[in-house]
């Protein structure tokens, strides 16, 4: 449900930090700033994590008034059931609805709020932790019906900040905020800078099929633009986490590394056989290592070669999604590039793999 698809691994913290610094393991949470402009007593700027669905107003900002519904506070049901509408009156600021995390998917919350007429959604975390990306629900086939129709922006905010907003609203204050996406856009220079949020899992259904189809179709244009110096590309890999209370569970151990901090759902949704979520996390890290080496050798376009070749030649359904097959792709590149990738992985990634038992 939302779903905290949870998993774990026994990597030592210092090893993961080493891996991150050496492999640019950028499991990045895309953030934007949220500024409270009134009331005076809670004015200030806070980070929020941009949802991986909807349409953020990149490069711009938007002001609104925050409301916290009296009923359906987790927004897991339609607000029509409660006779609640968030449509703004003519001449008034847009309505931002604050909802609580839990009990259903993030995307469903945002969809229900959008259907009630709101302009944006703020999801208050229910535990004190670092911000995470609100992702599409891979496990819920019914979400296909509404995911592509979500048009309003959404953001996850920290628990303490959420409590501050709730307290002010309950006290009768009008809470005005400004969502700012300008910092989420790379600084302009002579190149177009863009990012792709991806995943090496090729067995997650329609979502994975669409993503890989895009990568294959866009590969040629992307490589031409990179070689010409017209663009600067950066891949990111979405991860989940495992709540601390479950880090020793079988599911967490099979799907996560670093004591549950970086996880991926079980590809086949079968914990008794097949690939595990941690296999996906590890391959994601391999791909990040390839990107690091490609950048260092001034050939960033080679990342596209690796990910497409790996998916075509070594898919999960053929039981070839592993280190040996990844090495097979690397061997197809020139010796200098392959040696540099192996050097990085031998020094960092493979050490981590040996410690994951």
TrEMBL record:
Main location: membrane
Annotated membrane topology: Single-pass type I membrane protein
Keyword flag Hydrolase: no
Pfam families named in the record: PA, VSR_TRX
Keyword hit for Repeat: yes
Subcellular compartments: Endomembrane system
Domain called Vacuolar sorting receptor thioredoxin-like: residue spans: 192-334
Signal peptide start and end residues: 1-25
CDD domains in the record: PA_VSR
GO CC, one annotated term: endomembrane system
InterPro entries recorded: PA_dom_sf, PA_domain, VSR_TRX
Keywords from the named record: Calcium, EGF-like domain, Glycoprotein, Membrane, Repeat, Signal, Transmembrane, Transmembrane helix
Domain of life: Eukaryota
Cited SUPFAM superfamilies: PA domain
Positions of the PA domain: 64-165
Protein name: Uncharacterized protein
């Amino acid at each position: 449900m939302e779903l905290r698809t949870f998993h774990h691994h026994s990597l030592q913290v210092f090893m993961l930090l080493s891996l991150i610094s050496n492999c640019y393991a950028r499991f990045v949470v895309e953030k934007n700033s949220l500024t409270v402009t009134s009331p005076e007593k809670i004015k200030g700027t806070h980070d929020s994590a941009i949802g991986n669905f909807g349409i953020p107003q990149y490069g711009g900002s938007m002001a609104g008034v925050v409301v916290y519904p009296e009923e359906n506070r987790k927004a897991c049901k339609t607000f029509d059931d409660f006779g609640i509408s968030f449509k703004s009156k003519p001449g008034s600021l847009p309505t931002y609805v604050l909802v609580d995390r839990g009990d259903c998917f993030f995307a469903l919350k945002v969809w229900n709020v959008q259907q009630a007429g709101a302009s944006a959604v703020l999801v208050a975390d229910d535990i004190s932790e670092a911000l995470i990306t609100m992702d599409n629900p891979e496990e819920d086939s019914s979400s296909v019906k509404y995911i592509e129709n979500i048009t309003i922006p959404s953001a996850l905010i920290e628990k303490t900040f959420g409590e501050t907003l709730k307290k002010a609203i309950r006290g009768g204050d009008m809470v005005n905020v400004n969502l700012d996406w300008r910092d989420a856009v790379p600084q302009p220079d002579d190149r177009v800078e863009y990012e792709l949020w991806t995943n090496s899992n090729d067995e997650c259904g329609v979502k994975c099929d669409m993503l890989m189809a895009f990568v294959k179709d866009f590969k040629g244009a992307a490589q031409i633009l990179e070689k010409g110096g017209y663009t600067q590309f950066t891949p990111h890999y979405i991860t989940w986490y495992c709540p601390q209370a479950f880090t020793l569970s079988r599911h967490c151990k099979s799907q996560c590394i670093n004591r549950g901090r970086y996880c991926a759902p079980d590809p086949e949704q079968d914990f008794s056989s097949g690939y595990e979520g941690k296999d996906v996390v590890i391959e994601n890290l391999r791909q990040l290592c390839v990107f690091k080496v490609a950048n260092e050798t001034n050939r960033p376009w080679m990342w596209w070669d690796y990910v497409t070749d790996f998916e075509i030649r070594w898919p999960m359904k053929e039981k070839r999604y592993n280190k040996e097959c990844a090495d097979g792709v690397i061997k197809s590149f020139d010796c200098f590039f392959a040696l540099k990738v192996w050097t990085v992985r031998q020094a960092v990634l493979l050490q981590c793999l040996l410690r994951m038992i």
